[in-house]
Amino acid sequence: MSDEKPTAPGASVSQRLMSLDALRGFDMFWIIGAEDLFHGLDKISHTGVIPILAEQLDHEDWEGFRFYDLIFPLFVFIVGASLVFSLSRTIETVGRSAAVRRVIWRGVMLFLIGIFYSGGFSHDWPNIRLMGVLNRIALCYLFAGLFFCFFRLKGLLAVCVALLVGYWALLTFVPFPDVRPLPCGFQSICKETGFTNAAQLNLTSTNLISRVYIKGVNLANYTDQKYLPGMKWDGTWDPEGILSTLPAIGTCLLGVFAGLLLRSKNISDTQKVRCLLVAGLAGVLLGHLWGLQFPVIKKIWTSSYVLVAGGYSALLLGCFYLVVDVWKCQQWCQPFVWIGMNSITVYLANNIVSFDRLGLRFAGGDVKRFLDNSVAPGFGELVVALVGLALGIWLCRFLYRKKIFLRL
Questions:
Q1: Which of 61, 65, 149, 311 is 20 to 30 Å apart from 54, CA to CA?
Q2: How many other C-beta atoms are found inside a 10 Å radius of the C-beta of residue 124?
Q3: Predicted pLDDT of residue 311
Q4: Sites in the chain below the pLDDT cut of 50
């Protein structure tokens, strides 16, 4: 989600940071189909670095960190950085009350769009998902935006620390019932292991446990099992559930700190880059160190995961800011800018029409089979991925050229 007012194509980029748009587009680039390119290449050749890159473009099953585990928190981080510029301008021109109303309106609307993205009311209750990717982004924007409107830097730092440390304390020290049926032992609880309904769990168990981070058996997942209504993505719990939204707000606040740094007029551009790179490296190291006790797990958004993902996000932002806004090397990132300026639009479009399915319409069936047989096995899938990705980029370029930008 971009909060800043778009500039016309070809206009001066001084009104906004092109690096933020480009980084947002780089993030969405993988979501709309770029990862399929490497999976296609991996089917053609299992040698060299291709299998390693393809593996990085899949999520870790549970504990650990891969590149694809950065995509979601990077977007949340960019939301935080962007809201600094838009809300500061709103507060300066029309006042804090208007900024608060704007934050609430956008948060609510994005949350509703998130429900639509997850299927809307196409299914009967309780098969409607209330918490999803866009819903989490909406809540992160809502709370981070409100915190920004009412707190200065020290207050924001205190809130961020409280969220991360508080979440760690909850998941570490608060006891909760071991909901696993007795024959399960230490088996994880998720759709893959056959648990699709909370009624399958022993929610009345009197065996209390704590300091447990097994898939489906931890305080965050228990909270979803007990209190989250509607459909849950992983059967009895949701990776975008209730409790894990708290540290996700911390991720957005890390972006706010980056935005405050970039907006500062008292620090030179080279110092800003240096601060981002140093802070990013520190975040990665501290996150992995914390992970020795509180594992790095995306699906419950652990505090150690927040630091690792926030660190990598700061490193990427520092590099993009240096190249795009300081060195003014901007031609190479234009496709990313097209995507980044309409991130919500392309995300919704990919959900509704699916660029990979469009790619199959142009290069699937006999065309794909011919390419697999005449060139190399897997080459047809690679071409399908290329066509789908090209269609996604073309849509973003078309919208950018026509000055069509979806804003809430």
A1: 311
A2: 7
A3: 98
A4: 5-14
Q: Which two tokens stand for residue 396?
A: 């973003």
How many Cα atoms are found within 13 Å in the side-chain-facing hemisphere of 235? 17
Question: Could you give phi then psi for residue 295, rounded to 5 degrees?
Answer: -55, 150
CB atoms within 10 A of CB 12: 8
Cβ(269)–Cβ(326) under 8 Å? yes
Sign of CA dihedral 362, 365, 367, 369: positive
In degrees, rounded to 5, the angle at the alpha carbon of residue 160 between the alpha carbons of residues 158 and 163 is 105
Q: Are 341 and 2 in contact (CB under 8 A)?
A: yes
CB atoms within 10 A of CB 122: 9
Q: Choose among 221, 231, 316: nearest CA to 26.
A: 316
pLDDT tens digits, one per residue of 158-208 = 999 999 999 999 999 999 999 998 777 678 899 988 899 999 999 889 999
Tokens encoding 357: 């399915």
The predicted-structure confidence for 129-141, as pLDDT tens digits, reads as follows 999 999 999 999 9
Cα–Cα distance measured from residue 128 to residue 216, given in angstroms and rounded to the nearest whole number: 20
Residues 6+ apart with CB under 8 A from 171: 213, 218, 219, 220, 294, 300, 302
